[in-house]
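ok so for the tutorial part 2 we go from a plain amino acid sequence to predicted structure tokens. step 1 is just haveing the sequence, like this:
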Amino acid sequence: MARSTGSTGSTGSNGNTGSNGNAETADLADMPPMAARSETAEQQRLDAHGPAWRRWGPYLSERAWGTVREDYSPDGSAWDYFPHDHARSRVYRWNEDGLLGLCDDHQRLCFALALWNGKDPLLKERLFGLTGSEGNHGEDVKECYWYLDSTPTHSYLRALYKYPQAAFPYARLVEENRRRSRDEGEYELVDTGVFDGNRYFDIVVEYAKAAPDDVLIRVTATNRGAEPATLHLLPTLWFRNTWAWGRDDRRPTLAAGSVPGSVPGDPEIRVVRAQHPDLQRYDLSCEGADDLLFTENETNLQRLYGVPNPTPYVKDAFHDYVIHGQTEAVNPAQTGTKAAALYRRTAGPGESIVLRLRLRRGRRLSGLFTSGSPHPSPLPEGEGITPLPL
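step 2 — the prediction. this is what the tokens look like for a chain of 390 residues:
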């Protein structure tokens, strides 16, 4: 609406503008009624089925270890009760975490990305950081990641994580920050030199919804370094453990399946079929995956406490399988409550690895990755190592 700056009105004794106001009245009269205005596709989603479109979103924390929610210590020492070293092996009760992930609005079924560069001591499944006693300025995450896009209904999401090609300097970050005083600057990941020579991957994860219960997923890993580099990518689907606490013993299941490729001659599409008492059935279709891995979202009691595990398949099975080659860690029957599609890929300098997946409800198996599917458009040219230089 245009503002009138003319002097046709008079000013009364109370200092308010007089009652002429014809310019503003004309502007209001000329405006089209609300119903006649064109709406964006996002506004139409909000108006028609807003809550349904928001059922899936970025509600998955990148870090749940060391939080008050998971603290059962007698003295309230949350940081020490559930440290980062326990996170890969120990089941959460109240919430889950994952890297650039999403979940339903009750966090029953979760999806996130895990990574391994062939050198890390750990499978990268969640963010690393310092506890309050470790950081010279207190609690602090020590990673490089950005949230880039999200519509109000989460019909489109995009995030970026920078993954070093060298071993992640976990111990060095803890030791150096602990050594520094409060008067000194923090020792950040970029200060360790792991990004020198651009030896890292830009990991971009995008989500685009074709419907409230139909999410297309694209993972793009770009080698920013000057030499070829190998990367293991594990898009992971799992259920939050709600059955081990004596309140609801109904146990959901994940199982393997497959469907033909979208185009004749294409490799088959591996499928993880998720069945939950409340969510019903969802399928995660994984184009071109090398294998599917299955385990249980159960605590590894043997590793943490020296107590025999009631099941041989536990939460950190993918860590042991990928990094240590322990094939017996995963369930050969390909069932469980945690599953991952395994991709082993090598990218030359400046090259990108692209994965396509689709998480959707029901048994609709046709047209999974056809050209008409609503995948988000490619990233803008020249984006490089945005959003911030290293």
